[in-house]
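Quick one:
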Amino acid sequence: MMSLFLDSNVFVEYFRGNQGAEQLVEKLFTGRYSLFINDVVYNEVLFMYLKHKTGKSYWDLKKHLELVKKAGNEFVDSILPLLAFPKFLDTTNEIIVEALTIVTTHGLLPSDALILATAKYYGLDGIVTLDSDLLKVAPREGLSAISRADDLR
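Output:
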C-alpha cells in the first residue's frame, strides 16, 4: 500500500471546490492508500478555515474570540472528520533539524520544509500537494510528488 503525506493545500482547495483537488481527495480516500498528516497541516487547514468563515485576518481574529469559537465549533463538526482519517505523525527534533537542512538547501519555506522532512523521516512513499515548490523538491529528496488523481497508481 502506498504511503502518502497530504499537504494542507489539498484539503483547502478541496473545501474551496477545486475540481482537481476534489478528484484527488476522492481517489485518495478509497482506502487503497496509507494517508498521513502532521501538526503543520492541521494548523494550516484550521487557520484557513477560520479566516474563510470569519473573513478576518490573523490580528483581527485575535480580537474576535466569539467568532473564532463559533467557526471552531463548525470546523469540529464539518472539517475535522476528514482530517481525522489520515494518521497523525509527530514532529521530532530530528525532523526539525532535517527541515532546516531543507530550507538551507532548497529554499523551501518552514512549513513546507517540515512537511517534506516529516515524510522523509517516516519513510513515506510520497507527498500529495498542489504546491509547485514541493512538487519540484520532493523528488530531489527521494519522494514521489503527486498533484493529480491520474498521478496515483
